[in-house]
Amino acid sequence: MPSTSARGQKPLDLLVLSMLFERPMHPYEMVQLAAKRHYDRLVKLRTTSIYHVVARLGERGLIAVHEVEREGNRPERTVYELTDAGRAAHRAALEALLADVPTEYPQLYLALAQAHELPLADAAALLRRRRAAMVDQLARVTALIEGADERGVPEVFRLDGGMRVATLTAQLAWLDDLLDRMDRHDIAWLDDVLRDQNHTNRLDGMYL
Q1: Which is nearest to 33 in space by CA: 52, 18, 54?
Q2: Are both 95 and 11 inside the same structural domain?
Q3: Which of 86, 127, 178, 181: disulfide with 62, CB 3.0–4.6 Å?
């Protein structure tokens, strides 16, 4: 997810709106729910960040106080709910996210575009390190999906996990093929390209 979501909503803003779409909650309940549902796979999460988002959304009129809970000697807890404006903002942002294709800049693409600037063996070793991390990530997401399936969680609540598994599986297959060709020197690396270009150091025109 990009740093700023559609229609001006930041990723964590949309996540808070989504939780309040379910029911009124106090911020700490949102923190607990976000941890329980592993929402850190979707956005960067910090406890204080959710409180800041709640304050900001309140200032914008997207959420409002539903009630203030008081239990014995425990501190008061303010429960928030979506306003009509909040529901409209939530829907507009979600519709745009589902339909639009924003320009994103994954670090992996940048790394691959510049990989030729390293010796082939070094680039291959680093890609193998990345591959190992991707395999671990795939295993974690797969385990989350399997656990949800065992608990009877309907697929509709974990569509992002299915997409992530498909994406990681495809990326790993592509990366394995690349590493295999690198090991067999079946891909022209920078020295080979420069040699073929009559020993010139200019790489003009060498781009997509």
Answers
A1: 18
A2: yes
A3: 86
